Amino acid sequence: MKVLYITTGLYTGGAEVMLYQLLTRINRAKFSPVVLSLMNNGTIGERIQSLDIPVYTIDMEPGKPTLVAAWKLIRTVNQIKPDIIQGWMYQGNMAAQFANLFNFKKIPVIWCIHHSINSLKSEKILTQILIKLGILLSKLNYKVVFVSQNSKKQHEILGYYRDNTCVIPNGFDTLHFQASQEQKCKLRSELSLEPDTFLIGLVCRYHPMKDHANFIKAAALLSQKFPHARFLLAGRDVDYSNQSLLQLIQDLEIRNKVYLLGERRDTSNIFSALDVLSVSSAYGEAFPLVIGEAMSCGIPCVVTNVGDSGWIVGNTGRVVEPRNPEALANAWQDLIAIGLEARQALGKAARERIINYFSLANVVEQYEKLYLEVAGKTSLRKMVSLETQLQLYASKE
């Protein structure tokens, strides 16, 4: 069964990484995956190709659809001839529906939504348009998959069709994401940090929804009481060439306490080096992968209550309101105060929670069952249609 994944892009982000993780485990004896990126290969495309999975690109500029791109999309989908089209993120979802309109053989379309909505006004204009279009088109899908329970509720309140939705959370490779004392010592040595330095991390791309300012302001507040604490930030555009981020760090006089690592692929090693992982996002998160990855490494997390972040953490960390640096700093302070032994107990409970509820194997199995279900319904419809045609033919005899 050929499954075509149409994704917005393949840059490093939670949704893109989850697609890669799904493709590493999908049963290749039953499913033949193909990926089509509306933009370019990004940083994930080569990793997918290394799995011997074809990757096609439309090379569309971000947020700028053109007639040429539309024609290339239609032509490519017709060439691939998939049995199922799986949209991935808003633009990928819309592209999946659009391409199917111009396909002689109507193909079952599944959407996958990786975004939560606190307020439509806080979204970019293009995202608002895509969300509103989704209200009109969601009924046409065989299934709309949400990675977040909270996201599902928010979209249904806006008017998304309720009868074809389900939740399949993101999953985590707990064999890959494990604590490593060796990597902890190695990274801390690279940063010239003492072994007992309290290190708090933020690992995500630079984007307004991630609210790096919230994290930096909280870091400045914590530094007033715990001057020996240090702060590690990693992700796309999170480096010393980012002038707006660097300016804020300098204005708050904590440059000697902050490390900007830029985009890294060795995130499991980064998590191992931390005492606490934070997510400081203001909006937009549905099911942040970084939380589960850090928890799988036995790292307690302090997160803002956006999307399903609080549900992922459960009672193994701390959950605070977004856009509140004081609350974030106080939660960090609380984890410092409980001591090393209690933090290690939280980290152990965090890893157990990921294994029990969010294992990658379980999530892949849910997607595979969905594809088989859709294929079964399609086959049944074809059989019914054929039977009807035969009955009509017999009645004419």
Structural class designation: alpha/beta
Q: What's the Cα radius of gyration?
A: 23 Å
Question: How many β strands by DSSP?
Answer: 13
> Overall pLDDT, averaged?
93
- Our count of domains comes out at 2
Outline type: globular
Unreliable stretches, pLDDT < 50, 5 or more residues? 383-390
Strand content: 5-15%
- Report the CATH architecture of the largest domain: 3-Layer(aba) Sandwich
User: How many individual helices?
Assistant: 15
Q: Can you identify the CATH class of the largest domain?
A: Alpha Beta
Largest sheet: 7 strands, parallel
Strand order of the largest sheet: 3-2-1-4-5-6-7
Distance between the termini: 37 Å
Would you tell me which CATH topology of the largest domain applies?
Rossmann fold
Order of helices and strands: EHEHEHEHEHEHEHEHEHEHEHEHEHHH
Helix content: 40-55%
CATH superfamily of the largest domain: Glycogen Phosphorylase B
Give an overview in words.
By secondary structure, the protein is of the alpha/beta class. The chain folds into two domains: 2-171 and 377-392, Rossmann fold (3-Layer(aba) Sandwich), CATH 3.40.50; 181-357, Glycogen Phosphorylase B (Rossmann fold). The chain has helices spanning 14-25, 45-49, 67-80, 90-101, 125-137, 149-158, 181-190, 212-225, 243-251, 267-273, 289-296, 309-313, 325-337, 339-357, 360-396, and strands spanning 2-7, 32-37, 55-57, 84-88, 109-113, 143-146, 165-167, 199-203, 230-234, 258-260, 276-279, 301-304, 318-320. The strands form two sheets. It has a seven-stranded parallel sheet with strand order 3-2-1-4-5-6-7, with helices on both faces. Helix 8 (212-225) crosses helix 13 and helix 11 (289-296) crosses helix 14. The longest helix has 37 residues, at 360-396. It is globular, with a radius of gyration of 23 Å. The two termini are 37 Å apart. 46% of the residues are buried.
